[in-house]
Structures are given as structure tokens and as C-alpha cells.
Amino acid sequence: MTTKQTFLGVNVPKPRVAFFELSSCEGCQLQILNNEATLLDFLSMVEIVTFREGMTEKSDEYDVAFVEGCITRKDEEQRLLTIRKNAGLVVALGSCACFGGVNQLKNRFNDLNWVKKEVYGDHPIDTQEAKPISTLIDVDLEIYGCPIKKEEVEDIVVNLILGKSIDHPKYPVCMECKAKSNICLFDLGEPCLGPITRAGCDAWCPSSRLGCWGCRGPAPEANIKQLLHICNEREIPMERVMDRLECFGGFSESIEQLRRTEGR
Amino acid sequence: MIFKMFPAAELEDLFALLAVNRIIGPISKGLNKDGHELFDFDHVTDFSHLKIAYTQTIHSAKKFCLPHHEETSTFTFTGDDWQKEVDFGAHQPLVLFGLHPCDINSLNKLDKVLMDSIYPNPFYGAKRQNMLIIGHSCTPQPACFCQSMGTDTVLAGCDLFLTLLGDDYFAEVHSSRAYHLLEQLDCWEPGAKDHARFRASIEKRSDSFTNTVDTSDLTKILDMEFASQVWQQWGERCLSCGTCAQVCPTCYCYGIEEKVDMDLSRAVKNKQLYSCNLIDFAEVAGGHNFRPESHTRLKYRYYHKHRGFVEAFEEALCTGCGRCGTSCLAGITVPEVIASVRGGSHDA
How large is the ipTM? Predict the structure, then answer.
């Protein structure tokens, strides 16, 4: 049932929305449900037709598909192709869908069979290299974060409905961190990827005095070389920095390049 | 100018007299990794939390009249009609207690742009004019170069300026409000001996600056060195993170964004302080970016502060507080950048 909604007297669409999960913890979808204060408003703005975390009903008729998780199995590839066929708009929801997320850490090992054996022992399981969904289908919109920030998703959905442009912040986390008058984590001797990571999280981790792990991937201007130099100057072990750079997959291209040029 | 003296112990009484208002002052934010105390401006309700002998705060006091985020207007929709509400955000008077000369002078500089220009900014002005400012003397820190910028002393822009002379305060009374406040303390008229103590104190302070910037003919030199290689060298180091502008007491550039509530019945127009070092600062409609490279953005920040503003207002848009250099992880400091530009071929 679709009820009409208007903005300034003009009819605006109330899209049929579906949520899907590939390999992920489904934490991003939980985020959508988490913010009870705005949940009812969110539910009245869109018509949710499929959402495993929140309802039993399912439908293949939807305008917008939010896909959480990365591809690690053959059957997920098939599901994803079907979602792309059914949806007008496919949104990659969260760092797993955008970059491979924590799951892509296994790609670092040269021998994936060894990984499979180490994790699952003698229980055979279909699992392959973890890949972002954009490696298989065209993605219309990416929403970054591990997990995503509910407020950001809400703003994006409002803008979608109103036909406004959707712009992610192009500045790094430092801007949001400074606006909150936080103490710089480097002053406390902690590494932080805030200076190179795309903002939009409202400096979530640094505000709790946890240096940024780069879950939202690189800002459009990310001076990684300088950040490594800064960490080095401050005697922060390179492994600690690389752990963060590699954690969510957003920086994988930059790391590859670094490895090639500097043999890290 | 009216001068008064009062015992330093009575600073607490002055604080108490003002405590019917909201007081903003320097407080401790803990220790850094090297054990040095970090300070910032915040609301102070208890005199014992006021760190009046602070070195330098991480952020400036500008956020109390020029916040990082501000709702400039809200819109309420009913059917196809809408109503606009504007709130300048000056809900209560603020007392800024213990501002150093650099920060008082920075507000004076902001006033020139945001209050005294053809189009005054009422959001800034409303808050700025609802402030009582008590200045306090400071000890020059290694990063401070206010002396070079001519902002190491206060001629105007505060109600009261206090200089600590041993166990007493030497008070410069800049407003009638301050005069009436001091009437409630045990003040005395400074005599020749007090004047001598004051002069010895300011001389000692003047001699203790260790950091300098040569600003002579700087506007011309910047014009000559527009194509200098040093900009590129500093640009390579720049993280384009905007931290310098965020902590700067005089940066006022901003962006505007409109946001509609989820029930589509209300919208807000948000103002956010921005930085010319951010990648999309000079991006215009259609997507063209006039300054896509970090060195061009960094350069323009210096040109605005040390060339354009000087030509327009006969002073730099920099108070020499040193915060940008202290906060810059890449170690880009104003004295070093300007020295390298002056040197022409200096190593960045």
C-alpha cells in the first residue's frame, strides 16, 4: 500500500525499498533499526518490502535495493545479479559492500585454500576472495562506514526522494573532529587515519578517543605518504598503521601502490 | 585609560561577580603524551577549574561567536506554504574570561570583516556584541609570533585587561562595565612604583619572544614568489585536512547546506565553517575545480592572510597565535613557510 506524500504541495515518491545482505555481520541494517527516535519517520518516508532484520514479509518488487556485505560465494553473485535486475537503484550499504570490509583481510593470504582449511578445517565451504559488489554489478550509490551512520542514511534517503544531489563530504575526518574540539589522537601518542579518511561519521571513533581505522575509505585527497611519515616521526610502529589501512579495504589500492613503490 | 590594581587573590571575587552569566575560560583537557598540559576554552562554572595561567588553548575562542556549525534559518512547511524563522543564536550574554592578546585581536580582525563591512553578519554580530571580555597577560610560548604580527598587545576589543604583577593584578579598564565591576573589588590607584613594575613586566615579556616572522614588504614578496617552488614543497606535505583553519582564530570561510527533515515538514539551512585547504573549496557549479592541487590551496591561504587582507585592511589576517603550526601534523608553520618564501629557494 502506497500512501501519497508531498513536499511543499508537490507529490514526491514513496519508494519501495528492500534490504539485502551478502557476507556481512548485518550490523549496518541493525543501525537502521537502532535509532528508535527517528525510526517511525523513516518508515513513513519509504515503503520497506524486504528487510530480514526487521520483518518476515518479502517481495521482489522494489525501487531501491540497499545491499550490505561483500561477495565471497558463488550463490551471492547470482543473488546480486537478480537484485540489480529488479532494482532501479542499487545502494552499496557499508564498508563490506563498498570495499570488501573486514572480510577482505583474508585476501592478503596468497593461498586461499590454506585459509579455508585453517578456518573451517574439514568442513567444506564455498568461499572465495572477498570482493566489493561493484566488481560484479553497477552500483548507483555507496554509503560508507563500518557500521554506516544512520543519520547519514536518513539524509541520503530524503535527498533521493526529493531528487536532490547526494554529496558525500570530500574532506577528511579531521574537520569533524576539530569541530567537536577533540584532542588530536596524535597528541596522545595514538595513530589515527582521520587525516586521510573520508568524513561523514562525525568523528565517531576519535570522539571516544579511539584513533580512526579508516572504515569509510580514503578522502578524495588522501596524503597517505605524509601520514606514514608522520607516524614514523612519532615512532608509531608501521604495523599498527598498516593494520588500520588494511582493515576495511578502502585503502587497498593505495597500499598496493605503496608496496610496489616502497616495498612495504 | 583608567588603570587599577587589585590583589591577585581577588580574581576569584571577580569571577564570582560575573558568574550570574555564562563564563567561558581556559580549562585543562588533560596531558599529552609528553606530559604537557593541554588547554581549551569551555564553559567554566567553578573557579577552581579556570586555568588562568594557561599557555595556549588548542582551539581559539572564535567558536563562541562563529561556531563550526550553525543553523542559520529553519523552514516549516504547511501544505504548499512555508514559514522561515531566523535565530541569531545570541541566547545569553557570555563572559570570555582570560583571553590572551592574540585572541582579543583576532576578534577585532573578524569584526572588520563580519561586522564593519557593507554586509554585516548578524549571526556573528549578535553573539559578539553580547560578550564581556576579560583579557589576561600571557607568557610567550615557542610557537608564538604575535609580536611580529603586531598583535602582542591589546589596544581595544576587551572590557578589562589584566596583567599579573607578582601577587597583584594591573588592570586596564576599557569599558564602563569593567569600571563598575572593579568598584566591587579592593582596588587601588596604581602609583609610580606600580607603573614601574608594569613596565618592567611588559619589557621582560617583549624580550622573551623566541619566534619571529619577517613581515616587511611581505605583500610584494608574495607577489614576486607566486610561482616559487617552495609552494609545491609545502603542498606535498599538506594533508588538506583543514585543521589549520579549524583552529585558526581568524579563518571565517564557510559552506551552506540545506537539509530537509525526514517527515518533510521542516528544513534547515546549515552553515559550516570550511577551509580553503579542502579539496573542493574552489569547486564550482559544473564541477570545475580552480585549485585541485594541494599546493595551490595552501598558497592561497597564505595569500589571503598575508597579502589580500593586508591590502584591504592594512593588517594581516593572522595574529601569530601559532595554533595552525602547533596543530598541523605535517609541521607546516607560518614562520617557516614565510621564511622559505622570502628565501626564495629555501628547503621546505
Answer: 0.94
